[in-house]
Write a structure and sequence with these properties.
two-stranded antiparallel sheet, 246 residues, disordered N terminus, 8 helices, Four Helix Bundle (Hemerythrin (Met), subunit A), mainly alpha
Length: 246
């Protein structure tokens, strides 16, 4: 029994160390390994008013954070749904801790997705001022809805006093969060305006593809360490609450 608590911090620290190394490797590759600029015509976006196409040039480097953070958000929403379904089937409190941990981390990585996407949009089709690129297109709006969904679950948990009602709400809400990221992913097909449909042209350059894969691995490791850290913290909170109630 005593081995499990001792192992959890070690696993979390190992994941955090690997995530930090991955982040440093990503920064190095993105600035010293990838091309100085994308060749003209490699990847274009269209202005919201249907005007001239815009070349990304140096601004594409933000995708080495933006894309992996989006993948991490998808993992968080999927794990929240799995945790909700598993709790309804087993009623084990560990699943409650997983749902909450995924929503907490999802709130953080979702904010990274929104901020990096907005900063890039300010350059790509905005005027350059902060916030000028936000145009409420479907991809941006659905991502904002997902971010608010993560926040709403955490807020509602604090607002409900009864333990059983709080756990049921958490599980059901976690399941409802699951389909939101597929909606974000498909949003470009609902009403595409500015956001690129895919990045296949950009990733055709081997240096860029390699850096993107390294960034994805590094951020996923960092994500795993954050979820593990929050899970340990939430499980500790559950044990403290049980001891106080005893």
């Amino acid at each position: 029994m005593s081995a499990k608590p001792a192992q959890s911090p070690l696993v979390t620290l190992a994941l955090a160390g690997a995530g930090l190394i991955g982040a440093l490797v990503t920064l190095y590759l993105s600035y010293f390994y990838t091309p100085v600029q994308v060749s003209r015509g490699t990847l274009w976006v269209v202005t919201p008013d249907g005007g001239n196409t815009i070349n990304l040039y140096e601004s594409y480097r933000i995708f080495f954070v933006h894309l992996p953070a989006a993948y991490a958000t998808a993992v968080c929403s999927t794990l929240a749904a799995i945790g909700g379904a598993a709790w309804l089937l087993t009623r084990k409190e560990q699943w409650q801790a997983i749902i909450v941990s995924c929503c907490e981390v999802g709130l953080a990585v979702g904010a990274i997705v929104l901020l990096t996407g907005t900063f890039w949009a300010d350059y790509a089709w905005g005027s350059g001022r902060i916030g000028s690129g936000w145009n409420w297109e479907p991809r941006l709006t659905t991502m904002l809805i997902l971010w608010f969904a993560f926040a709403a679950l955490l807020v509602l948990r604090r607002a409900i006093d009864g333990e059983k009602a709080r756990e049921m709400m958490t599980a059901v809400y976690g399941i409802l969060i699951g389909p939101l990221y597929p909606l974000v992913s498909k949003a470009v097909e609902i009403g595409q305006t500015s956001h690129p449909r895919n990045f296949s042209d950009l990733l055709s350059a081997p240096e860029i593809a390699t850096t993107k894969h390294a960034a994805t691995v590094g951020i996923m490791l960092a994500l795993a360490s954050l979820i593990a850290l929050r899970y340990c913290w939430n499980r500790l909170g559950q044990r403290i609450a049980q001891e106080r109630a005893a």
